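Page 42, continued from yesterday. The earlier attempt failed because a stray header line got pasted into the input along with the sequence. Redoing it now with the clean sequence only.
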Amino acid sequence: MAKGRAARLIPVPPAEVAIPDKLYFRIGEVSELTRTKAFVLRFWETEFPSLRPVKGKSGHRLYRRKDVELIFQIRRLLYEKGFTIAGARRHLATEGKTPAEQRHMFQSSLDVAQLQAIRQELQTILTLLSRKC
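This time it went through. Structure tokens are written below.
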């Protein structure tokens, strides 16, 4: 590999990787299964609220099967689909929700002043269009 070039990521679809039938996985096992570095997994824990491994008595991270499946999903969104971290977070938050729930999430992210400004601009556009017809 040439100096200064990043290593090429190898896609790992979850269908091709058999997740062992265990209750908990240590970070090294998850790193190996998902082909994701341990420091990246620890960073993702800070960025994705739904990724919260439990800590054992010794303080080691213990990932459950659903955590490993979520990591595969995050990896696919970021590396294969080209999402940003914020975009992947939004996608995971809205996934599985009804369109009405998704609209509510969008509306709650805008404040009242922004909505009033948008409404005013739309009314101005409507007025201009109605004059031209």
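Notes: Strands lie at 25-26, 54-55, 61-63.
Reminder to self: strip header lines before submitting.
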